[in-house]
Description:
By secondary structure, the protein is of the alpha+beta class. It has 2 domains: 1-34, no CATH class; 37-87, no CATH class. It has helices at 5-15, 38-43; strands spanning 49-53, 57-62, 67-73. A hairpin with a 4-residue loop joins β2 and β3 (67-73). Bound molecules: zinc ion (ZN). Residues 37, 39-40, 62, 64-65 line the site of zinc ion.
Amino acid sequence: MKLTAKNKQHIDDMMNGEPEHTDEFSDGLGICAYFHCALCIAVGAPQDISAGWTLHGLQVWCNVHGVNILHVDFEGRQHPGITSRGK
Length: 87
Ligand SMILES: [Zn+2]
């Protein structure tokens, strides 16, 4: 998947703590960039990724390489979330 300039800017803003909230927060598809394992891409392996809750927050894991892709520490804070399917 190739990121558009808008998606790159949105990710940069999120990582810098300045997310742009122009879209409604809903249970509709809002993904603007997918997680991937750089090691899998380097060897041409299909992505096999798990994502789930940890004691600290949220972690994305590569099942092929057994390595961390992302681990977000919520630092004990709670954030709004939606678990409904809307359909
Ligand atoms: Zn991998």
